[in-house]
Every structure is written in C-alpha cells, then in structure tokens.
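Q: Hi! First time doing this. I have a protein sequence and I read that you can turn it into a structure. Is that right? Here it is:
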Amino acid sequence: MRNNQKSNLSVYMGAVFLMATSAIGPGFLTQTTVFTEKLMASFGFVILISIGIDIIAQLNIWRIIAVSEKRAQDIANAVLPGLGYILAILIVAGGLAFNIGNIAGAGLGTNVLFGISPKTGALLSGVLAIGIFLVKEAGRLMDRFTQLLGFVMIGLTIYVMFTAQPPVGEAVVNTFVPAKIDILAIVTIVGGTIGGYITFAGGHRLIDAGIKGKEMLPEVTKSSVLAVGVASIMRIFLFLAALGVVATGFVLDPGNPPASVFHQAAGNVGYKLFGIVIWAAAITSVVGAAYTSVSFIRTFSPLLEKYHKYIIVGFIAVSTVVFYFVGQPVKILVLVGSLNGLILPIALGVMLVAAYRSKIVGDYRHPKWMTLTGIIVVIAMAIMGLYSLFNGIPQLFE
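A: Yes, that's right. Below is the predicted 3D structure, encoded as structure tokens:
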C-alpha cells in the first residue's frame, strides 16, 4: 500500500512539473522580463490576476478530465461530434510551431554555456529529448527529468533575484494597488502559463498513469493548483530579479531581455546561469509540448495509440529539423500565438458543458462556484483572445 501511495505521489508531482515546465519556456522568460520593464512594480498585479485565472481554468479542466476518465479531445467529441478533431488540430499546430521556438531556446542555452553554434546545440538538445521517449519507462523518466530541471530553474532564479536586490516592498504594494494596468499583458501572461496545450499537459499525464475517477478528485484538485503554483513561483522570482535590475535605470537588451537581467544582476556568472535556465526551460517545454500535443491525437486510431511514442519522437525531430534548416518561423509563431489565445476559452467552455452531461461524467456534480468562475474566465478570455487575434494577424503583413 505504501509503495502504491509513493508511486501515485511520484505521478502527481510528475504531472505538476510537466505542466509547470511546459509553461516555463523561452517565451515565458522573455514575456516576464519585457512586461516588468514596461510596467515596473505594477507587473505584480498582472501576475496576481493571471494566477487567479490560471487556477480557475486548471481546476475545472483537470477535474473534468479525471472524472470523465477521458482526454480533452474525446470529451469535446462527446459534447459535439467533430469538435474534438478541431481542438486537436489547434493544439497540435500550436504545439509544433512553439516547439520550434523551444528548440531555438535550447540552442541559445548551449551557445551561452559552451560557445557552440545555436543550431548545433539545438540539434543535440533535440536528440536528448528524443532519447527520453525511446526508453522503456519513458513516462517515469519524463517525470523525473521535468522535476529535476524545474527545481534547478527555480533555484538559480532565486539566486539571481537576491543578487538583483529588488524593491520588494514597492512590488508588494503595487501588486494590490497598481499604478497602471495593462490588459494585453494579462492576456499574454495567462496564455503563456496555460495557453494552448499547456493546461492539458498534467491532466493527460494523470489519465495516462491511471489516476482518474471521482475517488481521485481531491488529489487531482491539489495537483492542479500546485502546478499553477510552481509556474507562478518561477514567474514571481523572475519578475523580482528583473525589477531589481530595471529599477536602477538599466535598459534591457531588446534582443534578449532575460539574458541582460541575469548578466546585469550577477555578471558573467549570471550570464552562464541564464544559459542553464533557458536551456532547462526550453528542453522541458520541448518534452511537454511533444507529449501533450501527441496525446491529443493518439485516441483517434488504434494505430496512433500503438505507435504514439514514435509519433512523439517524430514531432520533436520535425521541430528540430525545421529550426536547423529554416530557422524560427516568426510569422507562423505570431499567427499561432493569436489562435492560441482562443484555445483556452474554447477548451474550458467545452469542459464546462461536459460537466453537466451525465453520459460523460456520470453522477458527478460539478461545484457551482467552479462553473460560475469558469464561465467568467471563458467570456473574459474569449473577448481578450479575439482582441489578440485581430491585432496579431495584421502584423503578418506589415
């Protein structure tokens, strides 16, 4: 019994860190530093609001996945035939595009650490990520890998935060009484934490490990909140580190804002630490994006289910090859980024409908407060997602 509890705890923590490290990618690092420079201490308010939205979305989605014992695409197809395929296409397209960016981030990290070219570093990182899914116990190795690098990223960022000596008191005050509010920053940060495939990463991992059913809901609920907590801790420490730097009047390098934070705060040592952090952030996001994206199509065919590990390998290989030979497709990233802003309200909306379909959840009764807050998030994110979409597409043609 004790071994079973220990095994379940390992799976829960694996799901927590798979979701959290999927969120903490190169884009996460860049968004946080850029908005800190723009909003200064008031960015704390953006983080606070985004944490609330993230928790509501995760609570609803993870619980409904667990109690229905189905993956999100199968739930969507049960709500409306064909909807699951549309959701899967959006998730896979976004995951593939952003995975190219993640591979690029891994290449940048190896360049900082070892001086090798970003393309060579990206290629080696891609091979490492592929190797994780070729071993027999791929799920367990993935869990341990994301947990280890998650702790490394947070630990190093805490060190840099202390060396930056941020004005913590000012940050606390502005978190609750902001000097300025930026709606677009909220949309971006929410999207960067639980947008696209990210919000499903942990929920699907639990299903794959057999953690499902009403009896598991207390643990699933705790895991969903903890996952947001881990990603948010990283966001808060990075925000404080960046605030400590920009509060002195230092202007961040627009070509690589997070690198200039680490370098300014801790010198050449900080710059090397940045290499470790961005590599760890990128490679864990590569693993999370590939695993979760493929989990959205593996139930559509017995053949896909049988060979899903090799499809994950192919997903990573394609991402790596595209970056190596073509480079990062900026226009595709902009378009898919805008579309990803709409995935959360669509997915969460579908889940909320599913929560009241007995053929999907049986006799389960979804808490009314979760439904109400979930609806508010759906409406708010749909409005802001459409704003992001119509502001993102024109950039493709400028």
